[in-house]
Amino acid sequence: MDHRTSRHTHWRFIAVLCIVALVVPASAVAGAPRQSTLLQGRDIVGVPYDAIPYSEISAKLQEIESNSNRVRVDVIGQSAGGRDLFLVTLSDPEAMGRLGKYQAIRRLMLTDPEKAQDMIEQFGDFKVPFFVNASIHGTEYPGVDAAIKLVETLAYGDSEEVQAILDSVILLVNVVANPDGRVLNTRYNANGFDLNRDFITQSQPETRAVVRVITEWNPMVLLDLHGFYNPMLIEPCSPPHNPNYEYDLYIKWALGQGLAMKQELYDQLGFDAQIPYLEWDLGWEDWAPSYTPMYAMYHGGYGHTLETSYHDERGVDAHFAAVWGALKYVSQNKEGMLYDQIEIFRRGYLDLLQQPIPPELLPEYPQYEDLMIQEFPAGYVIPAGAPNQVSQHQAARLVDFLLFNDVQVHQATQSFVMDGAEYPKGTYVVWMNQPKRGLANTILEDGLDLSDIPGLYFYSPPSVWSNARLWGAELAVMEERIEIETAEIKAADPPQGSVEDGPAGAYAYAPTSIAAIQATNQLLADGVALARAEAPFEDSGRTFEAGTFILPDDAGLINDVAHAYGLPVFALAGEPAGATPLRQQRIVALMNEGGESLLGRFGFEFDAMSLTDLNIGPDLTGYDLFINDSVSLGTAGLSAKGRKSLQDFFAVGGDYVGLGSGGSDLAREIGLLDFDLSTSSGNSIVRVDLTAGDPVSAGFGQEGYVFINSTALFSNLSDGVEVAASLDATDFFVSGFWPGWQTSGAYGAAVAIHKTSGAQDVTLIGFDVQFRAHPENGFRMVANAIYNGLE
């Protein structure tokens, strides 16, 4: 198997795989990281220079720390595969004894930015934090070696340039940002994630470790060391630029710093470099907050990606030279750069308007400039619980995410009315007159309609995201400020469970949160006799929706479930008629890394599969359910053995969940369902209508938001096929990039369908529920489909 194989249970045909491929051992813990014991010794294989193995980095850093009073080494976390992440902090010896003072001064930028600007001249020897992030893609090896070369040079050097840098900066170096990738010889971490696409989701431990450093220090510069472009690529980027940046302040110094890096590269090595901002029309944009340098820009950093040209020692030297040029530039310009970094925070703090790029800094391609000015609302209102919030869990998760990212969140100390809706005391309010308003808006806004901008191109989707909409947290936009008494908070209120009083023959909890799915899977693993209502039912004058989970009458169990998972548990007169007993299903999943991650996070036990695994011809008939996002009978590279394995599985009535157009094709080819299939283009957030009483759309309410990414649209459905979700018939498009959506004919199109035929259940979900593990709320539909197969 490749590195994307199972982290849960061994295949029944694992003996065959041991002979032909690398096997990733099983784990009994859902969501545990993948890590191959056979790959532990394969540290730096096939690299065309004497690259330092990960296994030697710790000792090397300890040696430098022991021999230089300019260096401190900390372990700031572990990778998905359990490997240490090393942060080097480096400055002159006097500064190393006063790091707390420097951090306090940095915090003043956020609490009183005007005072901080006034005090710049009084800071005296104030040093600015400068962050180097090395080789976030594991196979882009030179970054790590360049980072160590940089640390050694500044730890031991005594040249005038070294001293000028030590006098100006506190250097922060994430020496090996992706230890798993360096060891396993892969771009990704041990969970199969591209870490440089994770900063708006922060699903991976390596990402969260970097975020903690950024929010602690607010580094003035962040350089992310990559490869490989020829000539070397040095940001800033081509358009379009995200409107949540204060881009005029960024580009004023980032362009000068980029030119300084280019010049130093030439002076030291005679190598050329390209700067997309000056030389590209489109194709290397800084739109998405999922990249490391772009994420740092929301914290006031001058962020740059550096793509060296060479895989060998020349790549190491090129990275070193470029970083050296940036350090020299900072040492010569730190006061002006610092003043404008603080100005970013001051604008937010005082709710000042953004400014356009100064004409003298505009490149030859200004046609996207009108995208770059953001009009911020007064604030966002996030209800804490019912009746305004479907899931208090998802609301709390969103608030804690905002706080983790250094966004200020308040709670209302009294009830209030906004746009005719009443919000109780305790409602969360995110005021936008705050230093990091750009990041707050990025996380909470719906985004823009970019569909009809001629020629627009994004290097790597998505063009749109919304943690609120795609995580299932309801919010309202406060366009104009209303007077509300609020108090700043440091953590969200944890969801509170409850158990309804009175006699009961059974108990119930609703399927409205990820916590409810996690509780269900844990109870099933513990052998508890659970059931699920497949249709709405009445009990004691109340209506419970389809998908409601039914618990036996066990007082101790009920209280444990309610309080451990924060779930309201309701007393029933008895178990509803027609409720289906639940059991753990035997699941095999051919999904991308986001889907695997979410299945594990939701608590499902499963065996992961790749196309390589399938081509061996495994016996799948021992499984209950096959989840698939990409393989059809016509898939290039599918072997005859793999095709027969699929056909045999379905011939004996195996259940199926197909995701996207790839997963849906297989159902049509096998003849599981009869329908017509079309595929949307682009990526966007859309509004969907959920079918009341449908067990696959259970727990979503009447309307929801999902992520579209080349999404399957279903039509001409055969008899017996039920529609669980469809695009809104009058107003489905919310934001993103879908050229021609207005004339696409997608209004009202089915995007989630299912059918039961005898013992076989088939569910097809056309929208993207697994994209980089971000659209987690939509993934609850996969959970519903898994449970639905037990009818």
Key words describing this protein structure:
Alpha-Beta Plaits, single chain, 32% helix, 4 domains, Aminopeptidase, 23 helices, alpha/beta, 10-stranded mixed β-sheet, 8-stranded mixed β-sheet, 791 residues
The proportion of residues forming helix, as a percent range, comes to 25-40%
Through-space gap between termini: 34 Å
**Main beta sheet strand tally, sense and closure:** 10 strands, mixed
Oligomer: single chain
The averaged pLDDT comes out at: 91
Find the CATH topology of the largest domain.
Answer: Aminopeptidase
Shape: globular
According to CATH, the homologous superfamily of the largest domain is Zn peptidases
Hey, roughly how much beta strand do the residues contain? 15-25%
Q: Per CATH, which architecture of the largest domain?
A: 3-Layer(aba) Sandwich
List low-confidence stretches: 1-41
Class by helix and strand content?
A: alpha/beta
**What is the count of helical runs?**
23
Q: What is the CATH first-level class name of the largest domain?
A: Alpha Beta
| Count of folded domains | 4
Q: How many beta strands in the DSSP annotation?
A: 37
* Radius of gyration computed on alpha carbons: 27 Å
